[in-house]
Amino acid sequence: MNQSLRGDVEMPNILCCYKWVIDEAYIRTGPAQALDMSVVDYKISDYDKNAIEEAMLLQERFGGSVAAITIGRPDDTKGLKDALSRGPQKAYFVNDPSFEKLEPAQTAAILADAITGRIEYDLILCGEGSSDLYAQQVGPRLAEKLGIPCISYAVAINVEGSRLKVERKTEEGLEVVAVPLPALITVAPDINTPRIPGLRDTLAASKKPVEEIGLTDLPGPYEARIQTVGIKAASLTRNGQKFSADKAGVKALVEALQKDGAL
Amino acid sequence: MAGVWILAEYIEQSKELLNVGRELAGQVGVELAAWTWDAAWADECLAHGADEVFLLPPLSVDQGLDAYIRIIAEKARTIMPEIILVSSTLKGKELAARLAGRLDAGMASECQGLRWDGEKNSLLAERLLYGGAGVQTVSCLGRPQIATVPPRTYEVASRSEAKGGRLTEISEQPSSPVAILERKSREHQTQDITRAKAVVCVGRGMENQRDLEKARKLAGLIGGEVGCTRPIAEEMHWMPEDTCIGLSGKIIKPDLYIGLGVSGQIQHLIGTRDARIVCAVNTDENAPIFAGADYGIVGDLNEILPMLLEEIGAVKK
Fold this sequence. Notes:
The complex is a heterodimer. In chain A, about 25% of the residues lie in helices and about 30% in strands. By secondary structure, chain A is α/β, with parallel strands linked by helices. Chain A has a 9-stranded mixed beta sheet with strand order 11-10-9-12-8-1-6-7-13, with helices on both faces. The longest helix of chain A has 17 residues, at about 45-60. Chain A is globular, with a radius of gyration of 22 Å. The termini of chain A are far apart. By secondary structure, chain B is α/β, with parallel strands linked by helices. The longest helix of chain B is centred in the first third of the chain and has 18 residues, at about 10-30. The termini of chain B are far apart. The interface between A and B is large, with 84 and 86 residues.
């Protein structure tokens, strides 16, 4: 393992992971309940924007460095610029034409191998899940692969010397936990509001270094542990009956609800 | 030999998993085992169909569920169960994913349906993707096959007449580098909206925070609770985050849902689709909420909400 454990980690090296995903807002339902992806755009997975933002907020408060890492096909470079425009000083681009539709076990294994022996870190930040699969596995799996502690669904992070104090969500409320560095934390979307990069940030982003890591640089192979058997469009449609926006309409609506036994 | 394992943070969810676990164990032709750390829960699991219960030593006050991961993973390596089902509470999801990472096992997250494919000898799981726009069916390759299941996806297993299941006490001590310093219970505010019979949901179309009072009044009239969309909690901070309805928030199953100024992003509709009746008021006639609603009114909340209060108030008298 290659982490910068400098006894008292005052200024953490933070690595934030992001996924470049299909923007689900562009997905349509085609014939026979198939998903129509003919006109789609991509985006940084929503919750990963919170991870990048939290890394930047921590750097503003405690110093240190922030780098971003992602996995994709060689032409998925648009995301790099977007990620770097959000503040990180450097990006690692783990890419190969075969790095498409990876399942979480593969993503975590590739990330672990790309990081180990190559990237110095005290803290790894991930979003709680991705906007496309939302399996919420990669963060915890990556922590296991790296053999470091993991805290999930964080809503506040504080650096206290060589340990972190983190507030995480639980079913009953919140827990304040302490964990030694290095560690991995997945952040909940309510931890912050991601900044919107300005023109200057976008210009600065194109000057920042991107280190490429290819499949041949990694030990591999990375076999899938789950297989997608099929995907179909979710059916959410109901027979919407509209009522007029006046007293008569509201009265008719309430009568309908009564008839349904819903009141 | 225990072939289907179940594990949940709360006994209610253990019983739900025992229900689906019993079915799967029968199809696979193996035993059903439950993991717990509470002796009383162990008895409950045995009474609800478990052939075996693994009873873990209790946690110290500063330890969380993650302190058990190493112990469970080691046991899984020796016994190699066919299937491990974990209830997907926040801690359950983390535990399952880390267990899968440690065992290098395939995992299907937040499954809404599970079935056994006897021909291929594998677990088939249905789950949502793309923010709820799609339903993905996955099969796990290799063993064990891990799946997390949202609470209340299955009914609780019925109490079975004593079958004489075994209790196996685990002696290895839990350990974790993570120390819990403090637990903050959620302020006592509303009833859990996932259990509410009726839910009034506030969306961005509500322009004035003062109108929340009207939403609460409406909820009071229909005997329900108030929930909200993500922006109301996260951007406006009008309501607590745990009242957010949707894919990454709460999945609700009320008899009646009334959306006030809710546009109906797919992520939100996933949270309401199990409602029996969905009713929506929004100014935008093209808002996606109307496609997922049984009844709708295209109109201004400032006008419609007072009328709704009056009319429902009249029939509720």
